[in-house]
Structure formats: C-alpha cells, structure tokens
Amino acid sequence: QQQVKQSPQSLIVQKGGIPIINCAYENTAFDYFPWYQQFPGKGPALLIAIRPDVSEKKEGRFTISFNKSAKQFSLHIMDSQPGDSATYFCAASKQDDYKLSFGAGTTVTVRA
Amino acid sequence: ETGVTQSPTHLIKTRGQQVTLRCSSQSGHNTVSWYQQALGQGPQFIFQYYREEENGRGNFPPRFSGLQFPNYSSELNVNALELDDSALYLCASSLVSGHVGSPLHFGNGTRLTVT
Q: Which residues make Cβ contacts (< 8 Å) with residue A21, sequence separation at least 6?
C-alpha cells in the first residue's frame, strides 16, 4: 500500500521554466513532508521540508505548497536550470520518528 | 563534518547466499535507518536503529536483519537472497534527542545485484 502518491512520473521543461510535482498522502498522522533530490549514482539529498502548520515555504528557487484539507503538497522549481535535472521524491512521516514513506519519484529534465 | 558512508558500493551475489552491508553514520548522529530502492522506484523503509535496538520496521521479512554498534555504525544483513532483493540499499542517519529528531541524511548506497 503506497502511502504517498506522486505525479507526474517524468517531465521535461525548458531552461527558466517551472516544473511542478504533485504529491498526495492518506495518513493524517503525517506531519513532516520533505522533498529529496537524487542524482544518478547518489543517495537522496534533502532539498526542503514543510510541516502542516504552514501553507507555503520557499528556499532559494524551491517552493513547497501544502494543502492540509486536500492532503496534497507540491514542489515548484522556479527559474529551472539544466543542473536541476534529477529525480525528485516527496516523502512523509510523523515528525517524531522520521520513518519516511516516499513517493515513486519524478524525473525532471531541464533543457538548455 | 563526515557524511554517511556505505560499503561496499557494488556487490554481486547468487540467489540463496547471505550478504552484509555496512554504514557509518554522520558525525554526531545516533540513529540509523535503512531503505531499499528498487530501480525506478522510491526508497522503501526497512528498519531503524536507535540505541543499538530496532526501533520500527517496514514491510520486510525477518531474513532482513540489522545491527547498530556503540559507535552508531550499522550493518544490514540479508539471508537467503532472492532475485527481487536486487536494489540500491540506502543508509540514512539522524540525531534523535528526546522525542525530537533531525532530518535524515542519506549515504550513496550499496548497489546489490542478485543473480
């Protein structure tokens, strides 16, 4: 049973475009929602995380939007660059245990 | 600050064999979690170790077992390997103090191929 559903599976944008990745969760006990970036041959690296008491969080060119009532959250990559080409994973857990449930991943390709 | 290191980076085993994967946690971290990432999928939680004891387990059979040592390093053992065990095995460490934990930091994984 997949607790976090992620879409799309892949997307391609031009440099400067805004890739948007969406995730939905079922478990209302989740209260920690991180996004990870993974390059080929590397482990996932934490990009940005949000807790359900805020609806939006920005760090640099990365923005998370969170809709608690819909149990959905999304990642926007502003002014995307070819170096942002990677696989992005959303995840969720209870804050006190960090046992993450991951989405299936979205492969983002940014064309120069 | 030393990050999470895993060894070996690649491993090939035959079905039915046993394998041990190793992980050194990031400096200052006291909790280790293991994840399995099949090709093209998101990581799946295997188990977490805190204070040398298993502290939560995902939907994996008992032939997946682990250890955490006093220096917070960890091992993942898999017995009776099956073809479906072929995956990238990721170790992640964090600092837990009281009931508050820090975000996970992942290593680069061990790529296990079972033939």
A: A6, A7, A8, A11, A74, A75, A88, A90, A106, A108
Contact status of A19 with chain B (Cβ, < 8 Å): no
Rounded to the nearest integer, the mean pLDDT of chain B is 93
Q: List pLDDT tens digits, range A35-85.
A: 999 999 999 999 999 998 899 999 999 999 999 999 999 999 999 999 999
Radius of gyration of chain A (CA): 13
Where does the pLDDT of residue B100 fall: very low under 50, low under 70, confident under 90, or very high at 90 and above?
low
Residues 6+ apart with CB under 8 A from A110: A12, A13, A14, A15, A17, A19, A80, A81, A82, A83, A84, A85
Burial of residue A41 (CB within 10 Å: 0-12, 13-18, 19+) is exposed
- Rounded CA-CA distance B115/A82 in Å is 36
Chain-chain contact of B43 with A96 (C-beta, under 8 angstroms): no
The answer to whether A101 contacts chain B (CB < 8 Å) is yes
Question: Rounded to an integer, what distance in angstroms lies between the CA atom of residue B81 and that of residue B37?
Answer: 16
**Alpha-carbon span A15 to A12, nearest angstrom:** 10
- Locate B2 and state its tokens: 């030393």
Residue with token string 């994996």: B60
